[in-house]
Amino acid sequence: MNPTNDLRVLVVDDDFRVAALHARYVDEVPGFTALPPVHDARMVPRAVAEEKPDLLLLDVYLPQGSGLDLLATLDVDAFVLSAATEVDAVRTAIRRGALGYLVKPFDPKVLATRLRSYARYRRQLDSATVLDQGAIDRAQRTLLAGDEGGAVAATPTEQAVLAAVAATGEPATVMQVASAVGISRATAQRYLATLVQAGSLRLELTYGSRGRPEHRYLVQH
């Protein structure tokens, strides 16, 4: 159970001091919670099964095993955090599914940026049950885009829609946005859905007296 809805991060590093430091970095990023770190490769599968983390921060060089070997066996999102800079290590990490690779030591702001990008990536993927090619491409770009998230729009109409939502000062309806921007309800709905998938807006459902949900939109901070 995760009552706070924070993304849970498991740090895997054989150096106790470094592991504690990276866990502290994670806890300092809003929306993330660090789990107790793991220091031995043999303990990682069990920790993943019991703690069910959303993300691993995984070192390459571990006692009794390799982080790269773990990548191939664990069904969980992972960033590799390692001093290993050999081309083979980097290529293997990416080939085995690492979503990011940070070379140690690094500025904590770099990790915070990557974590925020990961949170936006998760929101984009979780916003729909089926994704079109554009949504998949946006999600992949988000992981590499750095800390450029929040209310970022690619087109003038998207910028106008975002501005209209922000200007209401409260969750905005589709009709409020359509009227403010001067577009049809269907067009407003399409742009709003795209911005939710991109992680720039958050969708809330409210229920009126008829019991039918109404979509309202907030700028995602």
UniProtKB/TrEMBL annotation:
The modification 4-aspartylphosphate is found at residue 59. InterPro entries: 2C-system_Tx_regulators, CheY-like_superfamily, Sig_transdc_resp-reg_cit/mal, Sig_transdc_resp-reg_receiver, Tscrpt_reg_IclR_N, WH-like_DNA-bd_sf, WH_DNA-bd_sf. This is Transcriptional regulatory protein. PANTHER family: TRANSCRIPTIONAL REGULATORY PROTEIN DCUR-RELATED, TRANSCRIPTIONAL REGULATORY PROTEIN DPIA. It is found in: Cytoplasm. Gene3D superfamilies: 3.40.50.2300, Winged helix-like DNA-binding domain superfamily/Winged helix DNA-binding domain (1.10.10.10). PROSITE patterns: RESPONSE_REGULATORY. Residues 8-119 form the Response regulatory domain. SUPFAM superfamilies: CheY-like, Winged helix' DNA-binding domain. It comes from Paeniglutamicibacter kerguelensis.
